[in-house]
Design goal:
The structure is a homotetramer of 281-residue chains. Chain A has 281 residues and is an alpha/beta fold. The first copy, chain A, has one domain: TIM Barrel. In chain A, 38% of the residues lie in helices and 15% in strands. The first copy, chain A, has ten helices and eleven strands. In chain A, strand 1 and strand 2 form a beta hairpin. The model of chain A has no long low-confidence stretch (mean pLDDT 97).
């Protein structure tokens, strides 16, 4: 189907045809998809309570309102660090509560959905699981917000249909997240597709975030792509921050330091304003 | 890592460094990865017992030794036919038994692994789940052969690491299956990567099949690609056959009729011989 | 080579290592690569003097300072309109002069370089010719600005080396132009790679434009991508405008009407300001 | 257009609709596109007379009937060896004549067409120039066979339209050559698309070769891909051979030694026979 056909197909719950008004997802008082631009920040993986606390405290002070951190990590090699699991969830929940920040973390398997949902305020489906239809169906039965990342090589149409799996199950709190697609370009980890952001806002009523960290894999590109994302119409950002990226257990080369994150916030402020929106605080 | 580095890395169970001799997987007396070329055939989805029986009987008579059929179907849209589920598994097992054909079917979720394993002789992980690490780990604990399809846009390295997840869990009966990768070409559904077949045979000791049906999505290309696959060194084929493709509930345009399948078998015979191998019968 | 290696390689004329200060290319008093953001606009192909005049007058009044228009058109089919050739160059030059707008047009062949250079203020190398090394060498001998579009599937590294061909020949007036790369996404004509813009500004001292028209192929995406491009650090835009896009001889579905262009200018103004720059007027 | 539409469009000279019988191109008595499989071999670049002579003598003795060698080389960097130019053409012609082998070499520019045509029996358009429409038009006016390589990221449809440019000009002696397309896979230089070979043979009447050297960039993959290409229906092969690949001035890692080439010929012989064809001798 063409984008126009999807936009006009009122048999699809994701379609704009069903909702002239944008969907706004409420995350414990923090709304995504409305006038405010939300910034989600935190480390790639939860390593221990101290590092997470330090990171969370700093990003919260600088303007992030939701805390991210991975407890179950999808890794190419079975011998790479797979995340702290339940222990990670406990740490994340504790730190989030202490700072009054809602938390988001990835769920990789249908068998872990209820466990992760016990801790997290938002559940994330990673790019590698965008086509995991069993997982999508399970999250459709949940009454919690879901962030659905675009698959490594998924078309926008397939991505919207993946969201449809969740909506069809009865859960309408779906937030899309563009994180780049795989191409032959080698200087960036993926190719960030910002036209997808503008297209999704046109074709669908769902909110959409951009993850400039995974999209580029390069620290110095995170801030310019964050600004570009907001200008393209994104409803928020998801950014990796680590107090000492060179010591991070994963994704260090794309993580910002708290200082870098401070710079990012300062840089996006005028762009947010130019877009007629305001930063969620 | 480069292909040479993976080939020489004896810390990786998939690596050729660990096994000069090719792994041969036994499927109820039918061996995959040895001298014989195996042909797996059957419909995309199991629709009912009659159609499956007719298809199975014909492909068995013509040279297929393993029967394929989908009971749980990964579909882009939640509103497309999702497969008959358990009922489909029962039909598949019954038909396979009646013809003395081992059966292979896809498993999409960790929660269904033991159910599918109760019926199937070989469990298949589809392209959309190649990066579903929870599922890979679960199949690593199984004592049954697994066919692992290459992901939509997965590199060969990522694919071998996905196999490593299964081997690392203790299950060494892994069979790879090349089914094309996604590119900008539009006249075929995917781009069949036969160099991947030759590379895998060099870098790893695992057997590898080719699925020319999904790789091309075009009926007339299935037979030439089957021949090319064997010349490239594939250990077998996985082919969609339906008695009336135009009435198939899914993938009709790439399914062969029994007549087409007869032609395919006749065409590959001299190629199999030219490769110094023989058809499994 | 990595982007860092290219950035630090002072044997490469395009490298940042050779020029801490950004190159600013002067086009008849209109500078590209400095503080000002330049907007280049006009029809895809020059059709006749009336249409071009009308378009040029309107885009000039609204804020475009350089006029674009194709006289030699690279078309997939030999039976499609190939451009008006010399007649087109004459019209373009006449209209440009009457409005005091510098003009840019594509050159497709070494044999036409001196002809095109007689008329044009800036010569454009299209995406399909980015790897036409003979043409690059010829333009290296010219003393005129050159806009070098990124190839359909060119890496950023290859693109910078293509620019190096021109610089190595002695012509340092090179302006890069990102126009999207080819991917498996079908809802857009190409995938606009804005990380390439930020990377190029970091690795090289050359100015860089963005062509949101060809990058997306979709009218409604041109303005959001124009805004995103400026936020990503682009030095200017190249936009297709046609008084009646539905009657355009080529690329109608991605051309803006003068009204759309007015909207684009109004939308980018606050973004330009937020980037600490100003529109060239 | 779909492949079926192109196949049935008799307004296109490349279309099967215009020619039920396959086009057979005669190259000084060596026919391409008929029953015989032709093998074209030689070094990537012509380095000097001795090396070329030695290579040519050996490949001729082993079964190659046409000699390849580059005099004008398309190189990513302007500082890489650009080929010997006219001197290279002279050497190639001399060696070809001494062994009674027709010669093929690349032409990169309209201005060099008549020069190259003075020496070469077949002119080659490289992947980077497939979209160089001026060059295509010029070769359409020639009365010599042309090998047209597929562009780096060209669709099959665009490739056939590029051939149409040559045919439309009056030159019907066009031979296509599949050499892989660019994808995100990193273990091979390109992804060889053998379905394109079968599709082209179906949709068009033009002969088609495969270049397994450039398609893979890996010496050990050249022979298996050569076999697969013939099984897919290719009319011939184009292979890089160098007496000492580790000393080659370009593409050494994908060049075969004469010994490797001997092995390739021995390996393809049974496949050629299995395809009901015979090697050109």
């Amino acid at each position: 189907m063409s984008s126009v056909a999807v936009k006009e197909d009122n048999a699809l719950k994701v379609s704009r045809a069903n909702c002239a008004k944008n969907t706004v997802v409420d995350v414990k008082g923090c709304s995504i998809g409305g006038e405010e631009i939300v910034v989600i920040a935190g480390p790639c993986a939860i390593e221990n309570e101290e590092v997470l606390k330090e990171t969370a405290f700093k990003v919260r002070a600088l303007g992030a309102t939701i805390l991210r951190g991975g407890a179950f990590k999808p890794r190419t090699s079975p011998y790479s660090f797979q995340g702290l699991g339940v222990k990670g969830l406990e740490i994340l929940a504790k730190v989030g509560e202490s700072l009054n920040m809602p938390i988001i973390t990835e769920v990789m398997d249908t068998e872990e959905v209820s466990l992760v949902a016990d801790y997290a305020d938002v559940l994330q489906i990673g790019a590698r699981n965008m086509h995991n239809f069993s997982l999508l169906k399970k999250l459709g039965q949940l009454n919690k917000p879901v962030v659905l990342k675009r698959g490594l090589a998924a078309t926008i149409e397939e991505w919207l249909y993946a969201a449809e799996y969740i909506l069809a199950g009865g859960n309408s709190q779906v937030i899309l997240c563009e994180r780049g697609i795989r191409t032959a370009e080698t200087w960036t980890r993926n190719t960030l597709d910002l036209a997808a952001v503008a297209l999704v806002k046109d074709v669908s009523h769902l909110p959409i975030l951009v993850d400039p960290s995974h999209a580029t894999g390069v620290r110095s590109l995170v801030t310019p792509m964050a600004k570009a994302a907001i200008s393209a119409g994104a409803d928020g950002l998801m950014v990796e921050v680590h107090p000492e990226p060179e010591k991070a257990w994963s994704d260090g080369e794309q993580s910002l330091t708290p200082n870098d994150f401070n710079h990012l916030i300062n840089e996006i402020k005028p762009v947010v304003k130019a877009s007629g929106r305001r930063l969620s605080l």
